[in-house]
Amino acid sequence: MNVSREALREALALYAVLPEGLEEGALGGILEAAIRGGASFVQLREKNLDDATYAARAGRLRAVAARHGVPLVVNDSVGAAIGSGADGLHVGQSDCGALEARERLPAGAILGVSVHSVAEALAAERAGADYLGVGAVFPTTTKIDARASTPALLSEICAAVSIPVVAIGGISLDNASLLSGTGIAGIAVVSALFGTAGGGFDAARTAGEARKLRAVADRVRAADPAIGGGT
Hints:
Blueprint: H1 5-11, E1 14-17, H2 24-37, E2 41-44, H3 51-67, E3 72-75, H4 78-84, E4 88-91, H5 98-104, E5 110-115, H6 118-127, E6 131-134, H7 151-160, E7 165-168, E8 186-189, H8 191-194, H9 203-222, H10 225-228
Parallel strand pairs: 1-2, 1-8, 2-3, 3-4, 4-5, 5-6, 6-7, 7-8
Helix pairs in contact: 2-3, 2-9, 3-4
C-alpha cells in the first residue's frame, strides 16, 4: 500500500496496536471490530513468535485490514514484514536500526520508528522514517519497559520534524484531550481499545470504544492548525 504523506497522516488518526498473545481467530474478530469503529491504522506486535509464524499471522491479518483500506505494519521483524506482504514495519530504538530497515524494506513500504527525544526523532527522519511514535506519554502497564515522555516533549518533537507523529502510552478517553495542540497526527492505543486479557476481549465493546476514541482523536487532531485549522 503506497500512500502519500498526507494520506498517511490521515491514516494515523486512530492507531490500533493489537494485543499480544491472542489466538489468531480472536485477533481477526477484534481487528474487524476495531476497524468498523474507526481504527485507521494497525500494528501487529508479537515478540514471542518466530519469523515464519509471525509472517503467516501478519499476512492473514493484513488481508483483513486491506479489505477496509487500512494499513497494517509489523513490529520489529523486517523478515516478518517482508514475508507477510505487510504495508510496513515499526521499529524501536533497540530493534533493527531505521536506516537498515529502510534499506531492506521494499520500495513504498511504511517505516515507523519509536523515539524518545528530539535528537532521536531527527535521526529517524534522516534515516527514512515515514512516521514517529512517541511515548509513553502517560503511565502504562501495557509495556513495562516503556521510557517516559511528556506532552511537552511531544510538542517539541512534532515541531522539529516534518513527518507525522503519533502519541502512545497510557492514552485513554479520560486523558487523550490533554494532547490537544501538540501537533500529533494521531493516538496509538492498546488496552483503551481492546481491554485487557484478564477482562476478556469483546468485539462489540471494541467497536464501541473505537468509535469514542476516534471521535476524541479527531478533536485532538483538529486542535493542530496544520491539520484541522484550529485556533
